[in-house]
Amino acid sequence: MENNGDFTIQKLAPLIRGKKLSPVELTRFLLERISRFQQEINAYITITADTAMAQAGKAEKEICKGDYRGVLHGIPISLKDLIYTCNVRTTAGAKILRKFVPKENAELVNRLLKTGCVFLGKTNMHEFAFGATNVNPHYGPVHNPWDRRCISGGSSGGSAASVVSAQAMGSFGTDTGGSIRIPAAACGCVGLKPTYGRVPMTGVIPLAVSLDHAGPLSRCVMDAAFLFEATAEPNIWGFNPKRAVAEIGKGIKDFRIGIPRQYFFDRLQPAVRRAVLAAAAVIERAGAKIVEVNLAGMDKTAQLAAEITADEALAYHEKWLEQKFKDYGEDVRSRLELSRKATAIAYIRAQQDRLAYSEEMSKTLEGIHVLLAPTLPVVAPLIDENEVRIGRYCEDVRLALLSLTRPGNLSGLPAISVPCGFSAEGLPIGLQLIGRRSGEASLLRVAYAYEQATPWHLHFPPEIQKERGLAGSGKKRGKGAKG
Predict the structure, then answer these.
(1) Active centre residues (catalytic)
(2) Is residue 478 scored above 50 in pLDDT?
(3) Which of 43, 140, 174, 309 is the most buried (most CB within 10 A)?
């Protein structure tokens, strides 16, 4: 493992602002890494090199003139390929949309453009976001940067892999059943799923509209806060997203952190259990109080989330299923086909159950600031594995990956995954924190306090070592940069 904690937005933004690091040189460096690693990691579907260099050049000129917009100005990032980008194809990882070019941007893209950030390209994903492995039959699987034989997790696997392998400074993905947090845990980065509705979904191809969320993936918690703040809707439930960055370093003394008695710790690989319990001890030493909480009915969440997701996905895909049936990958097609027998009554009851569950989760969080749990019960499985072993049991890979993240989507509560260790095989392990509705500020405070007390965010795959010449001293200057 190589220490590379300096290659973050948090560390590089001041260098760009001080004209000690050129956005053009940084963008060129990342594009070179994309070219180097695309074949073996396959993080991208579309690479927008010309657009990225033009945006970087514009950012550099603005900064040199003293028109610095903020911390994301000149920072190159990637976008999951179901987020609309004007005049850039948006495939959603599907054969059906391989030539689709939107005529407008998603709202979150417009918000990011206002910050002056740079778009490197559109990242690979599970077809139509309907899966958790990121094994894509049309564009190939995304390979885990820690072990190319393993999955990246999905459906935002390309976004996570692009961040971890230094092919982007940050990324945006979506999360319907865990699709930001799953790849964040599997690849070893930070993934934030904000409160439902906090980041606008306008112009994002849906999977299940009542469960879909958009949010950032990044190398560290502070970077996630920057990206969240830039895109968050300020007028929901009276929350000001500017608190996310302003309060992140205030500590967690007297915070109450809940550990669920049920479900989340029932069936885990031993390495995952050890790492997450060790993380709880670190958080307690940071000043928080750990308390046990009851979460009844958690065993029903998997079926409930699956039913709502499939029904809402079928509503979006119905015409294509009739006209372009063979253009779907087998796994996505089969899940959509299963929904044809669903009834309106069953769907309405499922939504009623979801609302009841959400209220119960919110009540549980009234007495605590954050819930603490594993993100995944396992480390990243091999790409060709259909089952994964957990103790004496073998479980379906997809169901295992989704089992601990779906509760955050059903409730609509904010949740984050942060690295908390490695297995004996050198694969990352993720710690999941779930917060109160619109409680991103407190959630990020806990995640940041844990991150600062541990070394895990500093470890990235050995290939990242070459970045350090660029990120470390700040001496590299591009055209137009001034000391």
Answers:
(1) 80, 155, 179
(2) no
(3) 43
